[in-house]
Design brief:
Layout: H1 2-8, H2 13-27, H3 36-59, H4 68-86, H5 104-135, H6 142-147, H7 149-154
């Protein structure tokens, strides 16, 4: 909300709700490992990173339905890495504390975990998309897209404007 207020001169409902979701996505990896004040920091930083990524993506014309990657992918990445920074042994001894407690290895482990997740998810998605492309195709015809997928694929009208 504040990012939109500064950037566009007014808060937006979509920015507010997206920021709240991004904050929750960001704190999810850290739940049970950080203090309440750190959860607020993670939520705010994650929301800011997600908002800036979404604005960057929009300016470049990159498609991301419902900003799923912009909120969940970026939010999860930021939250996971910040877990390595802000984890505290006082909350969970298993973490051994994060960077703020002198344990830089937790940040390294979190970055490796994020990288492994991207490689796994990206690789598997690539394979699945290749199989789908060879069997049924990934795109509809241009004419179908112009008419609208609600009508051509589902036989219904989603919006009557």
């Amino acid at each position: 909300m504040f990012n939109d207020w500064i950037r566009f001169g007014k808060p937006t409902a979509l920015g507010t709700v997206s920021g709240a979701v991004a904050g929750l996505v960001g704190i999810t990896p850290a739940a049970g490992f950080v203090a309440p004040w750190a959860a607020i920091v993670i939520g705010c930083l994650t929301a800011l990173c997600c908002a800036n990524f979404v604005h960057w993506r929009t300016r470049r014309g990159i498609d991301d339905s419902l900003d799923a990657y912009g909120v969940h992918g970026i939010g999860g990445t930021v939250g996971a890495i910040l877990t390595g920074v802000l984890a505290t042994a006082a909350v969970n001894k298993a973490a051994g504390g994060g960077l703020i407690e002198g344990n830089a290895m937790l940040v390294v482990k979190q970055v490796v975990g994020v990288a492994a997740t991207y490689i796994y998810a990206g690789g598997l998605s690539f394979v699945i998309l290749k199989i789908l492309d060879k069997t049924m195709g990934l795109r509809v015809r241009d004419e179908e897209e112009m008419i609208g997928l609600d009508q051509t694929q589902h036989g219904e009208t989603g919006y009557s404007l």
